[in-house]
Amino acid sequence: MKAVIQRVSDACVKVDGVTVGEISRGFLVLLGVREGDSQRECDALASKVAGLRVFTDENDKMNLALSDIGGQVLVISNFTLYGDCSHGKRPSFIKAARPETAEPLYERFCDELLKNGVSKVEKGLFGADMKVSLLNDGPVTLVIDTDELHLK
Description:
This protein is of the alpha/beta class. It contains 3 helices and 8 strands; from the N terminus they run E-E-E-H-E-E-H-E-H-E-E. The chain has helices at 39-51, 66-69, 99-115; strands spanning 2-15, 18-23, 26-32, 55-56, 62-64, 72-77, 120-123, 131-145. It starts with a strand and ends in a 7-residue tail after the last strand.
């Protein structure tokens, strides 16, 4: 699994002009699921995201996590994170998981964020054409790939 995490002041997602998810201070997470990903990767990634200490404390140091600030998360499914652009000009998405595999892991990731102390988790609409708006705070943007985590 792969997540692009942006620290935001606020974010929202619309489908057909209707807001389906909206948060205030916290993270916008673009989440990609790859073929072969399992609950193991999902749970580890959710724990990592929930515990990231990238919000500033009283000394202006990035030392606080979502749970410390009452932060919220907006999670958007994004199969294009597994686009392969190494050949030609048209990306291949063969590494991205099929919807029947990806959607349950996407839902589990959102549930696991809540279990890890995130106060509010909002979602886009899986597989839909979504319009995402955000006010990036910092900017602080991180990419986490479960291939790089030392999973037990």
